[in-house]
Amino acid sequence: MTALRGYHHVKLPVSDLRASIDWYGRALRLEVAIEFEEDGVLRGVALRDPGATLMLALREDPGRAGALSGFDPVALGVPTLADLRDWSDHLDAAGLAHGEIAEGSAGWLITGLTDPDGIEVRLYTLEGRS
């Protein structure tokens, strides 16, 4: 049997799909790759980064989104500390609040970046601290 190879996608619940599509586009430069409709109404999307290296799905589910407020269910990988600094600059330019770059248990990270439902998305370096 072959080993698992990372994630196919991560799915997060949201209370306002349109507002979340906008936020994830501005914050993480993600674009809609797939739309999911039920009875002719848009209920979810799969977002993809321009390099097609990750997919993040959003599903309209206000109750679950509210329950995750203040929680950090996902940390997205950033190759290096220099790249993380670039992301911090991007978030600043986009006017999105976030924490300072800090030392984590296995690298450097940005905390405090929260989507419209208060769900925290962390950016974490894939290289360790030196």
From TrEMBL:
This is Catechol 2,3-dioxygenase-like lactoylglutathione lyase family enzyme. One of its GO terms (molecular function) is lyase activity. Keywords: Dioxygenase, Lyase, Oxidoreductase. Residues 6-126 form the VOC domain. It comes from Sphaerisporangium krabiense. CDD domains: VOC (cd06587). Transmembrane segments: none annotated. The keyword Lyase applies. Pfam families: Glyoxalase.
